[in-house]
Structures are given as C-alpha cells and as structure tokens.
Amino acid sequence: MTGGVETQGSQSINYATVTWDQLHRDARFLAAELMRKHRPFRGIVAITRGGLIPAAILGRELGCRLIESVSVASYAGEEGTQQEPKLLKAPEAAGDGEGFLIVDDLVDSGVTARYVREILPKAVFACLYAKPDGRPYTDHFVTEVPQDTWVLFPWDMAPQFVAPLNRSHKA
Ligand SMILES: O=P(O)(O)OC[C@H]1O[C@H](OP(=O)(O)OP(=O)(O)O)[C@H](O)[C@@H]1O
Ligand SMILES: Nc1nc2[nH]cnc2c(=O)[nH]1
Ligand SMILES: [Mg+2]
Known about the structure:
This protein has 171 residues and is α/β, with parallel strands linked by helices.
C-alpha cells in the first residue's frame, strides 16, 4: 500500500494506493490466516461490488466453489448525512450464514458490514483493509488504514502519462 496526498483547493485528501499485485498478495495472506483459524467453509458470500475480486481469489485459495453474493446500496438519508443501507439482492444460498465466509474489500464506517452480518449472523466476516471505525465489524483483516485516508483500489485507477519534473515546473 502506497501513501499519497492530493490537494484540492485548500483541502488535502490522503490516499492509500493498492496495486493488483499488492491486492493479490494481501488476499493470499488473508486466505492463509482463514485456513489456520477455521474449518473449511461451505461457501463464500461476496459483498458486491468491492468484495467480488477478493472473493474470487479467496475461493481459489480455499478450494471453495460456491460463491454467493449480496448487494447492498448505501444512500444518504433525508438529512443528507446518515447512510442507510438498502438490500438490492439477498444471499439466498447462505441461509443464516452457518459455514459461510462473508468477503468485502474494506470496512470503513462499518455500516455495510454490520448490515450484512445482521442478515447472516452465523457467518465469519473477512476483508482486506479496515479503518478504525469499521474494525469491530470484521473478524479478520490484513492491513489497518487511517480513518481519514481513502483507499484507491486497482479497479479505481489507470496508468497514465506523468510529465518529467523538469517540464512540470514553471520557472
Ligand atoms: O464500512 P462502510 O462505510 O459501509 O464502507 C465500506 C463499503 O463501501 C464500499 O462499497 P460501496 O458501497 O462504495 O459500493 P461498491 O462496493 O459497489 O463500490 C466498500 O466496497 C465497502 O463495501
Ligand atoms: N474505494 C473506496 N471505497 C470506499 N468506500 C468506503 N470507504 C472507501 C475507501 O476508502 N475507498
Ligand atoms: Mg462495497
């Protein structure tokens, strides 16, 4: 994970950049921990969309072919601040979650994780990255990220031309 700061006007935003390689390594690290600590899972529930690629990697490593999905949309409440999750697709194959692993890319406020855990109370929850507010809602994670940092996933980015230093500075 590589840190960075972007300045927009007077505001600066902290970023943590994750490459495909790093994401793959982190997912394999998570798989090893899950194998050590749990019996084989009956299936995986990916929280779409961010959990889909981590779930595919974990499914391969854990030998798990049954991949269910749950789709949750968070939208602003009437006050404009409160985020209320809305279920767009239920994880029907997972019952109450017994024997299942829920997978997401990260927990931030923890709202999504808490909501999905209520639907699947017996499942284990794992994600790659966790911010402090979300940590209590995940059983496993790989790397902690500061609350004020925005994680940029490989699917959020594209390689692009960057001007050499001697051409990007005006005298
Ligand atoms: O802990 P929280 O504050 O709920 O945030 C974490 C969630 O936010 C992101 O998903 P998002 O809702 O942006 O949708 P996406 O996965 O489809 O991109 C991320 O993939 C997690 O699912
Ligand atoms: N890509 C991305 N999505 C998020 N959703 C909630 N927090 C984050 C974050 O840090 N990065
Ligand atoms: Mg998501």
